[in-house]
Amino acid sequence: MDKRRSRSRNKRKKEKKFNWTIVVKISLVFGLLFLATFFSILNMGSTNIINNVYINGISVSSLSTEEARNKLEPLLKEKLDKEISIKFEDYETTILPAEIDYSYNISSALEEAYGLGRTGNIITNNIKILMSLFKKTDIQAPIIYSENKLDNVVENISLEIPNLVVDPSYYISENELILTKGSAGNKLDKDSTKQIIISAINEEKSSINLPVNSVQPESIDIAKIHDDIYSEPQNATVTKDPYSITVEKKGIDFAISIEEANNIINSSESNEVSIPLVYKNAEITVADLGEDIFANRLSMSTTKYDSTNVNRATNLEIAVNKINGTVLAPGEIFSFNKVVGERTAKSGFKEAIIYADGELDYGLGGGICQVSSNLYNTVLKANLEIVERKNHSMTVNYLPIGCDATVSYGSVDFKFKNSRSYPIKIVATINSGVITISIYGIKEENEYTIDIITETLQKEDFETVYERTSSVPEGTEVIKQTGKYGYKCSTYKVLYQNGKIVSKTLLSTDTYKPQKQIVQVHK
User: Fold this and answer.
1) How far apart are CA 464 and CA 213, in angstroms?
2) Which of 242, 276, 282, 487 has the fewest CB neighbours in a 10 Å radius?
3) Domain 449-523 classified CATH 2.20.230?
4) Residue 150 CA to its chain's centroid (Å)
5) Is the Cβ–Cβ distance between 130 and 36 less than 8 Å?
6) Whole-angstrom Cα distance, residue 248 to residue 234?
7) Which pairing describes strands 176-180 and 207-209: parallel, antiparallel, or unpaired?
8) CB-side exposure of 415: number of CA atoms within 13 Å?
9) Contact indicator for 141, 109 with CB cutoff of 8 Å
10) What phi, psi does 111 have (nearest 5°)?
């Protein structure tokens, strides 16, 4: 009997305890709902962002969208004004986010921030407002940048890193195909570099290391090279309705079998080998058509050179004569390195000053970059498509910054495409210290006046160093090497029609290193 009473009392105690727990829970829920509803009602009349909200780590809590924008813009701009140092071994350059049009979409971030506690239903809004009392919300503003400008920056870097891998290359010299096997070296991982640059800007890093791999040159595929150069002869043709011209082409083939060509390559210890070629002439040439198909000069560029510098002048003359008379059919690509060929003593090139890793040096063919640069400007003025072009490491004295085109056989080329509807012809002359390069063809229905403009982004002073020598009288100074400023610039091509701008296109963003000034004083 006592046991039954005891069990009954325990049961009643548990029921009381259980009922009390339910009451507490229900009260808590109603309390939270009341609190959330209270803050929701307060927020309904507010035009400000709710509490505990950040954008890119910057608090915008309890601010209007206009106040938040005024706070964000200078702080985020400050982040974009910081240079990032880009390094690989001894190589170093810098980039500003502005060079790739990097910016934050502040409007989008503010819209998201303002919508917190407003864009859902009453329950979700209440929960979001309540949670803002305890939990921080950090919104990342969407980023915007120019893929084309980033590609241009990375492409320039890929050509500047030291000890570049030299892939196999070839060019045709009269009756021979000259093959260069290439050499092992460094190659930039361009895709990874782009990701690293964007991440560095996002994370406000001051420096990054480039992802560079040591690679072997590609193997020579002689069968593919044969297929690339092989062609049957084509006769020149002209039609008048609509007007169309086809330039004649010689047929070309190996003078030996592909197997024999492979044996020559594999048995040669030299980095350069030659394969004999055979040509077959077309039966009808442009001259046979009786038409003046290069009647109009489409563009012209002129630069001056020192004719008393015999070696450099010789190199210029060889290069000018090599490109002179070149005819390109529509869609055909011109390669400076293929047309001019490797700069060797056998080809007549002389030792002259070149730029090498940002310093002055001597090398075979020194100076011919003036020809490629002159041609580059002529091509731009003819509104032709640029396929490949790289600026010098330092400024040149014959053209403005942003208007030069350096070349280095086996690594850096200047290429352009005849993107016009008719054939074009390069006419190049050199005489009495003046190089003139023109492009002739037929004017099309839509022709433009073209202007090339360059905007300086940054200017860097040069260093002056003093060199003591007994050859200089006491108390005097002699400038042995004139200093040059360093620059970072963007160059644009502007098209006009009837005096009005039709388009403005970015051609390149270039960096030029400063050249130190060397002053000799008495020892």
Assistant:
1) 36
2) 242
3) yes
4) 6
5) yes
6) 5
7) unpaired
8) 13
9) yes
10) -60, -45
The two most distant CA atoms of the chain are separated, in Å, by 133
Name the 3-class secondary structure at 180.
strand
Is the pLDDT confidence value at 482 over 70? yes
The 10s digit of each residue's pLDDT in 278-327 is 999 999 887 677 556 788 899 999 999 999 999 999 999 999 999 998 98
**Three-class secondary structure of residue 359 per DSSP:** strand
One-letter amino acid of 2: D
For residue 240 the two structure tokens come to 């008048």
The CA–CA distances, whole Å, from 234 to 196, 280, 285, 335 equal 49, 10, 9, 21
Kindly report, residue by residue over 20-32, the tens digit of the pLDDT. 566 556 666 566 5
Closest CA to 336 of 298, 292, 389, 286: 389
Whole-Å CA distances, 455 to 6, 171, 406, 499: 96, 37, 20, 21
Rounded to whole angstroms, the Cα distance separating 244 from 423 reads 9
Distance between CA atoms of 452 and 500, rounded to whole angstroms? 15
Task: Verify cis geometry, omega within 30 degrees of 0, for the bond prior to 242.
Answer: yes
The length of the chain in residues reads 523
* Cβ pair 489, 400 in contact under 8 A: no
Position 61, amino acid: S
Strands (E), 210-347: 212-215, 237-240, 243-246, 251-254, 272-280, 296-304, 327-328, 333-335
CB 194, CB 153: distance < 8 Å: no
| pLDDT digits 0-9 by tens, 128-148 | 766 767 788 888 888 899 999
Residue type at 96 in one-letter notation: L
Output the CA torsion 373→378→379→383 (10° steps).
Answer: 140
User: How do the domains of the chain map onto residue ranges?
Assistant: 13-144, 292-447, 449-523
Q: In whole angstroms, what is the distance from residue 472 CA to residue 487 CA?
A: 32
| Helix, strand, or coil (residue 488) | strand
In terms of C-beta density within 10 A (0-12 exposed, 13-18 middle, 19 or more buried), how is residue 261 classed?
A: buried
Query: To the nearest whole number, what is the mean pLDDT of the chain?
Result: 87
pLDDT for the residue 237: 84
Tokens representing 372 are 């490629």
SS3 string of 58-107? EECCCCCHHHHHHHHHHHHHHHHCCCEEEEECCEEEEECHHHHCCEECHH
- Beta 53-55 vs 137-139: how paired, if at all? parallel
Nearest one of 102, 189, 115, 99 to 153, comparing CA atoms = 99
Query: Which distant-in-sequence residues (6+ apart) come within 8 Å of 46 by Cβ?
Result: none
Vertex 347: Cα angle to 345 and 348 (nearest 5): 65
